[in-house]
Amino acid sequence: MLVVLLLITDALLLLRLAGWPHFKYYVAKDVQFYFFNVTLITVINLGSAVVDQFKNINESLALMASRWYDRGTITLTVRKERIGYKPDSFPAELRRLQQYHNRLCDLIDKFNEVMGSVLLLAILYIVTSLLWDVSAVIEFFVKGCVIEGVRLDDLVLLDFLFWILISIGQTMFMARVGNAVVDENKRTLNYCYEFMNKLPSIPDTLVQRIRDNLRELANQVEARRPALTAAGIVKIDFRILGIVTTNTVTYVVVVLQFLFKQ
Question: Number of folded domains in the chain?
Fold first, then answer.
């Protein structure tokens, strides 16, 4: 709904200031922006659902640790019935978590296979949109309020600056989901090693079984290292903000060099 409202506001503003003869070349960009956002929101929701499953694994590990040490100070969203109160059930539960984590890693691999090209196109779209909006802002400052015979005002400049912020926000939302997958797996690794280091060093079969299961889960997390990628070319995390920013700044520098020469 917000996307539709933004598009309607943008269309009414440019129609009033530039008229249909110039706006008709802008319609395709608005339509493209709408379908891009629908696709991006779908991908983000799917990625967030996977992140929630990794969080459930970490919450289960934290709950088992609190049961083992009887701390009872951790507030969790996991239902208590999911894990038995007796430590005897921990090896079987850890084995289940390991299998569940492995299935989630397979799901991430399938997600990258199916949606990787879509994520790559999304990054390319964001970069090209930023370059287009930056070009319009530079054109506005260079030629003033009259572009191709059409008199514009400061609202158009604010409009393009607003779309630049929208593109940056889209990048941050996409990067946040990918970064969350990596962070949750780091948390899983930390929980495993923390639990192992606090187990008593006694010749007890149950303790040894729990330690072995935790070590197997930790080894699996280190080996699989699930992450969202754009067709295997770019890892989706906050580093893509650097990629987008670098491309935009490089383009602006090149354009300004040409303008100064003229």
Answer: 1
State pTM to two decimals. Answer: 0.77
Q: For 129, phi and psi rounded to 5 degrees?
A: -65, -40
State yes or no: pLDDT of 143 exceeds 50.
Answer: yes
Place of tokens 């797996």: 185
Which residues are CB-neighbours of 22 under 8 A, at least 6 positions away? 14, 148, 150
Span 178-221, pLDDT tens digits: 999 999 999 999 999 988 888 877 777 888 898 999 999 999 99
The whole domain housing 89 covers: 2-261
